[in-house]
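User: Hi! I'm working on a homework problem where we have to compare a predicted structure to a textbook description. Could you give me the structure for the chain below?
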Amino acid sequence: VLDSQYGMYVWPCAVVLAQYLWVHRSSLPGKRVLEIGAGVSLPGVVAAKCGAEVTLSDSEELPRCLQNCRRSCLANRLPHVPVLGLTWGRMSPELLALAPIDIILGSDVFFDPKDFEDVLTTIYFLLEKNPHAQFWTTYQVRSADWSIEALLCKWKLKSIHVPLSSFGADKEHLGSSSLPGRHTIEMMIISLARSDGT
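Assistant: Happy to help. Predicted structure tokens:
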């Protein structure tokens, strides 16, 4: 049984999101990227290695996860990547002071249904500040009863499903890793819905 320190592990969703970033690496140089719930920061580290200007974040209430973000940066020769404590659903000075963002990353942030609305509240705030930005997210299907569709409507967000086969992530092994294995993982891109509902 895992404790609240979810961010101490590399999860299958992180490997899939990292694969998406690698396939789209030519579009990343100069892009401003924020990873939320970064944990060990695999997607953010890949984005930084591909030339993006990355900021990593995890809950300000989980100092061990923030330390893991910093360790991942140091291990990958990225000592200047900023690491922020951002708690989903909380309007903190760090969140309010964030520089403009092009891409928000989140792997397996839709892990616990009690957090879904807090995640989307934070995403909505960031997309309102950066209307052309997108939220690239992967999640593991753990229950057919868990859905964010109603919350997407509530927060005036839209999602596009990204087939894993479109970026070579529909395999049990990616990048010499046995993750994602046989887990059911999905990817979507979330953005602001236009005023006409699209």
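For your comparison, note the following. Residues 27 and 136 are 14 Å apart (CA to CA). The chain has a mean pLDDT of 87. Good luck with the assignment!
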